[in-house]
């Protein structure tokens, strides 16, 4: 088998690669409640009676600057969010570069300013890193790792029957912003990436009965919901008319023949919360600038398996995508 970009696109093909080749060749995969084989957004390790969350990610987005963000903002936000969605308070980040030979230093400085701004917004310091220059890459690659202390462990496998399923805002904006920038489409629109650190928005909802959270990045809402459903062993029904999506995104998806449910997001979180707390959580999210369009989009149920979309005139199965339709978005 030859590895292709599809194997890194966040869908079922990528999951097969991770499980069949990577996980099958590792023996020690657990140091805390969440291990590598759980395939959650972060893992944990127990240190002196504290549960510490750890995550790492590499960013190869193309183009590196796009409407609403850039590779620097993406690299900080993505790692902060991976810690936050397992119920951890992010404490510190690492920052590593692989820079192509001949890269313009003024571009690197622009990326660094964006990294600094995002780090300050999240209030999470960068405390160590590494820099390599290579003639083996064609554009800058950034790796960030993060560590945080778990406040309330939220596992993908922890959704309960009757839980309300919330999405924190409009979907599909990041992937479309990348596509429009990359391909040079000249639509008269204002679609921007939603890339943002969500820790300040997520932290106050941990006081409620939040059972699971996930950021719907590669593979979009469809992939994230299917992962949550499969790991929790419970069905999820979502309602098409409740999914927040802008008219501009709908229009572009219709024109290009794209499904917004499988397009990547970088500033959204899916939340499974006890139904009795759902409205309180929704109110808190809507008070934050990144959660103003939050909606309850469905409920967890034992009446069926997998993810069903209720269109108002019928129901259809939402399968996990094979991969993200727009490669190299993060």
Which fold does the CATH topology of the largest domain refer to? Answer: Phosphoribosyl-aminoimidazole Synthetase, Chain A, domain 2
Radius of gyration: 19 Å
Summarize the helix and strand pattern as letters: HEEEEHEHEEEHHEHEHEHEEE
Helical region count? Answer: 8
Domains counted in the coordinates: how many?
Answer: 2
Strand count, sense and barrel status of the largest sheet are: 7 strands, mixed
Shape: globular
Strand order of the largest sheet: 9-11-8-12-10-13-14
What is the averaged pLDDT score? 95
Give the CATH class of the largest domain: Alpha Beta
Structural class: alpha+beta
Fourth-tier CATH superfamily name of the largest domain = PurM-like C-terminal domain
- The helicity comes to 25-40%
How many β-strand runs? Answer: 14
Q: Can you name the CATH architecture of the largest domain?
A: Alpha-Beta Complex
- DSSP strand (E) fraction? 25-35%
- Residue runs with pLDDT of under 50 for 5 or more positions: none
Q: Could you tell me how far the N terminus lies from the C terminus, measured between alpha carbons in angstroms?
A: 24 Å
